[in-house]
Amino acid sequence: MKALLIVDVQKDFLPGGALAVKDGDKIIPVINKLQEKFDFILATQDWHPANHKSFAANHPGKKTGEVIKLGGTDQMLWPVHCVQESEGAQFAKDLKRDKWNKVFKKGLNPLVDSYSGFFDNKKKEDTGLTAYLHEHNISDVYVTGLAADYCVKFTVLDALKEGFDAYLISDATRAVNLSPDDYDESLKEMSKSGAEVISSAAVSF
Fold it and tell me: Which residue ranges traverse the bilayer (predicted)?
């Protein structure tokens, strides 16, 4: 069975948001159209407490884009975003949600960031996504959302490590692009790891 997984299509990641992804809003019509092709749809939602240690604002003297050690692991510092219950943490207004089976919240532990929809960045806390997919006999995961070079990429890589066939839908994602080629490099890394990179037009069952 196949599932569509929509990663973090939230207001703070859209143009005008706290951590805006350029043209992030352009993927919403693509994802909405894709949803018509799937009977099983899941989503992830960044859901940080305000004191999250990945926020530059919680480290006096530090700036967004700096890398620090957080619990022994390299951590990029981000602007405050997707704080629990905030407007920026809500899903995009135009994103259809009527067919969704479940939403998996991530990033709740203030001491560790969580890019992947499966685990935190230290692989110590599990969102329950793997077990849920197995419970519903899902073998193929089609991944969309924001952003290609962070949460989408790590979700795809973990899907592969957890034994699922993973597909990255290239026109249903955009990248932060801290470096100009991050989008392309991310797609190469996912493909090299075993994911199939396809366009939304190629999704047909």
Answer: none
Cα first-last separation, the chain? 11
**DSSP class of residue 59?**
S
Q: What is the DSSP string of 72-112?
A: TEEEE-B-S-SBTTSGGGSBPTTS--TT--EEEEE---TTS
The dotted CATH code for 2-46+80-202 is 3.40.50.850
* Spans of all domains in the chain: 2-46+80-202
Block means of pLDDT (10 residues each) for the chain, 205 residues, are 98 98 98 98 98 97 94 93 98 98 97 96 94 98 97 98 98 94 97 98 90
Other Cβ atoms closer than 10 A to 8: 28
Three-state secondary structure call for residue 41: strand
Tokens read off for 17: 């948001």
CA-nearest of 174, 170, 154, 135 to 44 is 154
3-state helix, strand, coil in the chain (%, to 5): 25, 25, 50
